[in-house]
Amino acid sequence: MPTPVRVAIYDLDRTVLRTPTFTLFLLWAAWREAPWRLLLFPAFAALMIGYALRLYGRERFKPAAIRLMLGRSIASSRAEALAAAFAAWRVPRDVPPGAAACIARDRAEGYRLLMATAAPEFYAGAIADALGFDAILASRHHRDADGNWLPQLDGPNCYGVEKARRVEEWLSANAAAGVAHIRAYSDHISDAPTFALAGEAWLVGRGDRYVRLAAKHGWRAADFENAAVTEAR
What we know:
Order of helices and strands: EHHHHHEHEEEHEHEHE
Strand order of the largest sheet: 3-2-1-6-7-8
Structural class: alpha/beta
CATH architecture: 3-Layer(aba) Sandwich
Radius of gyration: 18 Å
Oligomer: single chain
Shape: globular
Number of domains: 1
Largest sheet: 6 strands, parallel
CATH class: Alpha Beta
Number of strands: 8
């Protein structure tokens, strides 16, 4: 009979990688592909300020930012090349030692590694591949008839409740024999819905604030700058 699977779910930004990827990727890609677009940085900064002031949500901010820095469409071959180069730049240099240790431990213990992130799928997938993940759930974007990536989101941003919904959907499709155990790792309380699916939830961060927040919710605290978090408590 099929054996129930064990799954380890990892967030990307500030969890698997130290540095948030969205703004970094857009500025890096613009500098690499069309440096003149960096002259549009004041408009990009205004978009970020508007988002920070909650004048609009992620569903408006992210497509507008992508369009500003990368254009109205991104050829599939160009997107793949940019994603691979970006992943090669960030992995392993931006992977904290604790993240690397937990990924290695979970893989050795037979867990399926699932990255679940709000980052755009077209570059987050390359990062997941570089780290040897088995699957990824990320924010999806429309493609045109020629397969080119478009800035517009294809469905809701993969964040909060939507991320947990997509994790459940993935489990239904990929764990026919059932789930033996789930570990989940994230730096942010917005992933509480995903943590609720896990038997073992790890809040990633440094300092007493994270320890107190984790204790308040019944989660475990992990400092990924410390490689000694390899043993589950």
